[in-house]
């Protein structure tokens, strides 16, 4: 490291406030891959990567573009085996809710500060919109593009936008982006190599290829995640490097996670890259947590590990992929105990809406096998959703879109979307990645209300007011809305709804 510059680059017109002076070298400390996450309505996590460790990562911020008069720092600059970068995490506190801030991580080479808006305080019933993607991988030459390898599926059509581009083109149309699992899909390095999509396959180079795909994803996401909070949940593709087992049929070789380096297993990259608001919600790391935004209480669950019921260890995993990951909790049934308490604490007069997401679905027109349908998840979560009148349950994992009726134990709520008692279920795992889309099993289940398994897209949730919530499926290719449905809920019937409403 050479002590080349002692100041961060300051945009023209921005005062050289003493607070931005950096007492060290910015060489190798240039921030990249910026990611925000809500940390309560008065906080924001700012995360970014650098090529070397920072002694004390620091963020300068303020309400005026030319006056970043506040700063926050931490000592969190972490890496792991197989990673080429360090993950820096700083929590900014003492912020005003629903307020725009300008910020710069120290050593930023951006000529203008980045911006974010803090979340609306619980009880603020102004309308808002959120974007949701599940199963979204790296786009471009290392992932989903207009071509695919031998046996590869559903490349983009020429001229179609991928989901990252689509989100970027509608950046002003949502407050935050929610991504409940299957992020980047760096573990597709193996399939992409075997299928000849990536050149010069060798298992020995796997670590480098995996890391390139991962870095490409965070780079591609930066225009979105540097300005919109990016709330994430765990999916199976965060667990290992072999995509849960991949076969090279031509050479009759089946790869297992025995080829994975320690840094590529047990959600290691996922744990290092993010800081979700689990401290604020008594959750656990990036695995389960909740947050409020205005009139909605959002809950992220972990369908991959820690399902409880005495199953500790690999068998506790919801799916059949033998991820050999977790558990992350130290107590029996820690996640469900937390969920019951988190739900019980919701003040429906402030946040009448409760929206839950978990990576794996249980209501989906797919084969009834544990790799697609998580019956263990249903077993532990569904009764709690019903008892606490959860409004909407989102999932992915199956790479298709299916909007279902409100359901409980396979029974359809006779009210459908007109003030149902049962939670509404939507699966949208169609954001896109190298492996394409899955075909839904026809005939569709009797609870299916709209299904699409040939188009990439994302979900847009609009909370109009305390009674109306609209879900839309946005086709990434051209931005058109291919499905719209509105749930009406008379939340005033619920426990905890105070008389002033
Ligand atoms: C800069 O670093 C030096 C040596 O580590 C230290 O003595 C000095 O107090 C630091 N200055 C500031 C402004 O932090
Ligand atoms: C800033 O530095 C990072 C890391 O070297 C690099 O990826 C990025 O392109 C640079 N950005 C600008 C605007 O120069
Ligand atoms: C980081 O700071 C925390 C408290 O601020 C402290 O407990 C911890 O030991 C520090 N870690 C390192 C590596 O310095
Ligand atoms: C595709 O995305 C680009 C950039 O993200 C945007 O400018 C353009 O309007 C989008 N096109 C369509 C048809 O959505
Ligand atoms: C792959 O190998 C070929 C032939 O040896 C070489 O020309 C090419 O540059 C290599 N490509 C990469 C990306 O390493
Ligand atoms: C493939 O490999 C397995 C064991 O690794 C072997 O039992 C089987 O005969 C092989 N199949 C072919 C077609 O070579
Ligand atoms: C995964 O990491 C957690 C937390 O460090 C640890 O408790 C657990 O034993 C690990 N699981 C496996 C299978 O390595
Ligand atoms: C799916 O399979 C599981 C286990 O084989 C079984 O318990 C369950 O009843 C089946 N569900 C449906 C809807 O067929
Ligand atoms: C749901 O509520 C019913 C009736 O109050 C109760 O018997 C049941 O134990 C509750 N289930 C859960 C998972 O809380
Ligand atoms: C839908 O199918 C389930 C079994 O999967 C059955 O229990 C239920 O009665 C059916 N509902 C209707 C309305 O047909
Ligand atoms: C709530 O929003 C819906 C959809 O925009 C609208 O039809 C309804 O009138 C609104 N209700 C109130 C009380 O404003
Ligand atoms: C947009 O894309 C969808 C899905 O590919 C297609 O069905 C629709 O016709 C397109 N709409 C327009 C206006 O091109
Ligand atoms: Fe997936
Ligand atoms: Fe998945």
Description:
The structure is a single chain. The protein is of the alpha+beta class and 501 residues long. The chain has two domains: 16-117, Purple acid phosphatase-like, N-terminal (Immunoglobulin-like); 128-493, Metallo-dependent phosphatases (Purple Acid Phosphatase, chain A, domain 2), CATH 3.60.21. The chain has seven helices and 26 strands. It is globular. The structure holds 2-acetamido-2-deoxy-beta-D-glucopyranose (NAG) (12 copies) and fe (ii) ion (2 copies). One 2-acetamido-2-deoxy-beta-D-glucopyranose is lined by residues 455, 475, 477-478, 480. It holds the Pfam family Pur_ac_phosph_N. It catalyses: a phosphate monoester + H2O = an alcohol + phosphate. InterPro entries: Calcineurin-like_PHP, FN3_dom, Metallo-depent_PP-like, MPP_PAP, PAPs-like, PAPs_C, PAPs_N, Purple_acid_Pase-like_N. One of its GO terms (molecular function) is metal ion binding.
Look at the structure and name the CATH superfamily of the largest domain. Answer: Metallo-dependent phosphatases
Bound molecules: 2-acetamido-2-deoxy-beta-D-glucopyranose, fe (ii) ion
- CATH level 1 class label of the largest domain: Alpha Beta
Extract low-pLDDT stretches. Answer: 1-21, 312-321, 496-501
Give the mean pLDDT. Answer: 91
The number of distinct β-strands equals 26
What is the straight-line distance between the termini? Answer: 61 Å
Number of helices: 7
CA gyration radius, whole angstroms? 22 Å
Content of β-strand: 25-35%
Question: Could you say what the CATH topology of the largest domain is called?
Answer: Purple Acid Phosphatase, chain A, domain 2
- The CATH architecture of the largest domain comes to 4-Layer Sandwich
Q: State the share of residues found in helices, binned by percent.
A: 10-25%
Structural class by SSE content = alpha+beta
